[in-house]
Amino acid sequence: MPTDEPITAPVSLRERRRAAATQEILDAAERHITEHGPAALSLRAVARSLGMTVQALYHYFPRRNALVTELIARTYDDLADAVQAAIDSAADDPAVPRVVIAAEGYRRWAIAHPERFQLLYGTPLRDYEAPADGPTTQAMRRMGAIFQHELFGGFTDAQLAAAGTLAPSSPLRGHLENMPPEGSGNLPAAATALLMSAWGHMHGLVVLEVFGHTSFLGDHQAEIFHMAMRNMLDDVHSRIPAQG
Question: 19, 45, 107, 116: which sits with the fewest CB atoms below 10 Å from its CB?
Answer without folding.
Answer: 19
